[in-house]
Amino acid sequence: MIIINSLQWMVQKELVKIYGNVIMPNPIHLMWEQLAMNGKEFPKNSFEKFTAKTLVANMKARNDGALKNYAVKAPDREQNIWLRDFLAIKIFKKKWLHKSWTTFTLTRCSHIGCYAPTPQINVFHQQYFTNKM
To answer: Nearest Cα to 124, choosing from 98, 89, 88?
Structure first.
């Protein structure tokens, strides 16, 4: 729910428009449009910062041993939750969204089990994030 709550907040603040997402234990895939900055930050950076801090705090509160898997030796952090070199692809026309998303889910997700019960797949469900029907 941390990821969903963060995405809902960003949609409600009109920072992003979500066109599709695939949420799995590892990784997540989003198709979104950045609409505005969150102060001095890009929405992507705000999303990563909020979710990482919340996930780390929850893991520490539960005394979760898996937290050690995210340990890094860096001057600015003890853990690194998000992959630094994410793959961002610009889609310049909205009519390409459905084709791009369909191609992505069929080619990229089929080999990692996106159609299994665990992942949550939402394509073109903006109302899921805005609570509007």
So the answer is: 98
Tens digit of pLDDT per residue, the chain (133 long)? 899 999 999 999 999 988 778 777 777 878 888 899 999 999 999 999 999 999 999 999 999 999 999 999 999 989 998 877 666 777 766 667 666 666 666 555 554 444 433 344 444 444 444 444 3
CB atoms within 10 A of CB 83: 10
- Report in angstroms the alpha-carbon separations of 45 from 15, 23, 93: 12, 18, 24
**pTM of this structure:** 0.71
